[in-house]
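Q: How do we represent a protein-ligand complex in a form that can be generated token by token?
A: Start from the inputs.
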Amino acid sequence: MFIPFETAKEAFAEFNINLTEKQFEAFSLYAEFLREYNEKVNLTAITEPEEILVKHFLDSVIPLSYTEFESGFTLLDIGTGAGFPGLPMAIMHPELKLTLMDANGKKITFLTELTEKLRKVIPLDVKIIKARAEDFARGELRGSFDIVTARAVAGLEILAEYAMPYVKIGGVFLAPKGGSESYEDGASMVEELGGDLADFVEYNLNGDLRRLFVIEKIDITPKKYPRSNAVIKKAKK
Ligand code: SAM
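Then emit the structure tokens for the protein with S-adenosylmethionine bound:
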């Protein structure tokens, strides 16, 4: 077994999140498959069960507690890697319509196999796209998501350029961050892209300071964004 159900339930309850046995079963399967797959393909440095619970699963699901959404909302997770934070969010909210995006083919293969297994335990509405976010934002997905999120992909300034084009007006870009990043690092770019800081939350996750920027889309993103990867990187220097 991954860890005892009661241990996981208590950890989630500290953040006022109710974990059911069914969800726990899905997380156990996720953790086991992640650990097994990680022996042949490098997906994560976090491999101890308690750490997977806190630093991957709990850290992924906490941000949704600070967001208001309706049933059937659409969520895009950019640079999802081994599925974080989008897939744990969908395990907690199976009514969510999730799109996972990553540029790396090995991660996409892992996610395809993982979601097939998870579907046997819990209903999931998940699409998986292999693409760089900045290359894919001019098609039908532009301006179409209620929530766009990304964890550990880039600093706020670059991340906003990846994420904001996909958010619909009135939707949010949820940016979970470590304690060292401030909103000022990306504020002018967020505003240029049509965003506005709606909420800022700080919380302690087992001794680690975490920050969450909830950025509302109040205006359309100018057509010139996102720029190509080379131009984004050059502009940052
Ligand atoms: N979000 C996951 C997490 O928190 O564990 C993975 C983080 S990992 C450090 C960064 C991931 O972002 C990698 O899987 C990489 O392939 C992906 N990535 C980086 N830049 C990207 C881009 N512009 N578009 C799509 N995926 C990107």
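The two ends are 48 Å apart (CA to CA). The chain has two domains: 1-118, 132-237.
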